[in-house]
Amino acid sequence: MAKLYITKRNSYKNIKYSKGKIYWKRVKQFIKELIRCRTAFLGAIIVLSFILIAILAPFVAPHDPLKASIVNRLRPPFWIEGGSSTYLLGADEIGRDILSRIIYGARVSILVGLVTVAISGFLGTLLGSFAGYFRGRFDAILSRFADLLLSFPYLIFAIFLMSIVGPGFFNLIVILCFKSWVNFFRLSRGEMISEKTKEYVEAAQALGESDIKIIFKEILPNIIHSLLVLATLRVGFFIILEASLSFLGLGIQPPTPAWGSMINSGRAYMLSAWWVSTIPGIALLILVLSINLLGEGLRDILDPRLKLE
Amino acid sequence: MAFAFLGISAPAFWLGIILIIVFAVNLNILPVYGRVAFAYKPIHITGMYVLDSILSRNWPALKDSLLHLILPSISLGAAQAAVITRILRSSMLEVLRADYVTLARTKGLSEYVVITKHALRNALIPTVTVIGLQIGMLLGGNMIIETIFGWPGLGRLVVTSIFNRDFPVVQGSVMFYALIYVAANLTVDILYTYLNPRTTI
Questions:
Q1: For residue A122, what pLDDT band results from cuts at 50, 70 and 90?
Q2: Dmax of chain A from CA atoms?
């Protein structure tokens, strides 16, 4: 009777389950679901094309964005009479081509949005995970500090800090990160607190795994979905915030093209040359709209899967 | 939902500029600049022009103040309206799946009563939280809209005093913002007890 147990010890070699293959399968499934959700796919395409245009800006832009030409001052876009085909979207008040400035301004906006979200997301998630897992005084101090930071209106806080440290790209990113890590902190802390009550954490603790390993290997992959959605939506918010700061004259200084300062310089010509203010705003609107569509699509894709898994 | 997305994506200052260009320049029906036309300025009782014109029964002044209010409110409110739309929609979707909604429908109540009396009341709870937060947010940091529409407001005062290094003014304004924020959240908490009678403050 004992011979009925046939053990095939070499059968493990036939199962090719490497970690990389599982992740690649998941990525392909994710892309397939993204294509199925049409608005999110549209958003993704537009965002990717913006990023591509921003990277290839020196090759795509028809003119130099800093070259002023007084002859072409306030030239209208090509569909209005008086416009020429060399200045496709018109020229601003000292004759710089608006299309080229939009393309170069996309660089600044996208860079600010992505870098701010990356830094503050990383920092906020780290701090929030540790605060939510370990609780105690560390958590209390950080939460009070986060509430303190949240009590200021965002723009006033940013203006205040900018007036102290001065304008500039690096200063702008530091100041934006200063306040934005709080969102990621609160989200990851809340998720960590609710995940910590689940059984698999108890099981990992019983197995004797160190706390840090539990945080990074067990819990964090489960909360990364909502963090990704938040990160995508915050990119749009930071692009608008950077445009607001440039509009006020802080942030990116002219003559470096930035969409906010283009809208600001067009304010004096609102009655006669409306295109100087309107067209950069349309570009901003399209970019942030597609980022929001992508974020909403991500939320739709990632959340139901989270419930099924 | 398209409106909601557009409202979130459009920056408020750009929307204000577009509204100015469309309404004031081309259509010429809504006034653009300032709080009230100089000829219609009501007597100073509280300093708030709509309230003053109601209190002094100055109906042309009331009409003029309200007309001047429209464009700034739209450009500020579009983004907030979009946020409220999204939150209310997602909480309504959740509430409409509950059992008591099915019960109300099987009882034969009209759809209107089901939605407003039973579902909306529960769906409003997270929405009211967001509205309270938004009141706090709206009362601070509107420097850009005030600059565009020419309203001499608190945001402009704060930013001007920041640029002039007038720190006591900044301190006072920040305290005022905190006070308004706390008052708004307190009102929201009190509203909770009305919406959900099981909660107590």
A1: very high
A2: 101
What is d(CA B145, CA B8) in angstroms, rounded to the nearest whole number? 16
Chain B: residue whose CA lies nearest to A148: B178
Whether residue A40 contacts residue A293, with contact meaning beta carbons closer than 8 Å, is answered with yes
| Residues A222-246, mean pLDDT to the nearest whole number | 86
Residues from chain A that touch B176, judged by Cβ atoms under 8 A, are none
Residue-wise pLDDT tens digits, A34-91: 777 788 888 889 999 999 998 888 888 888 878 888 877 887 887 777 777 778 888 8
Å from A257 to nearest chain B CA? Answer: 17
Please state the domain extents for chain B.
Answer: 2-195
> What stretches of A134-264 adopt beta strand conformation (E)?
none
Please choose, from the candidates B144, B62, B175, the residue with its C-alpha nearest in 3D space to the C-alpha of residue A244: B144
Are B5 and A289 in contact (CB < 8 Å)?
Answer: yes
How many other CB atoms sit within 10 Å of the CB of residue A190?
14
Which DSSP state fits B108? T
> What is the per-residue pLDDT across B96-120, written as a single tens digit (0 to 9) for each?
888 888 888 888 888 888 888 888 8
3-state secondary structure of A151: coil
- C-beta atoms of A285 and B17 within 8 A: no
B135 touches chain A (CB under 8 A): no
Q: In b/e form, how buried is each residue of B12-21, taking b as 16+ CB within 10 angstroms?
A: bbbbbbbbbb
pTM, 2 dp: 0.82
Cβ within 8 Å of residue A212, ≥6 positions away = none
User: How much is the ipTM here?
Assistant: 0.78
Q: Which fold has domain B2-195?
A: MetI-like fold (1.10.3720)
Name every residue whose Cβ is closer than 8 Å to that of residue A122 and which is 6 or more positions away in sequence: none
> Which has the minimum average pLDDT: A74-78, A108-112, B139-143?
B139-143
Residue A284 near residue B11, CB atoms below 8 Å: yes
A277: enclosing H helix or E strand: helix A275-308
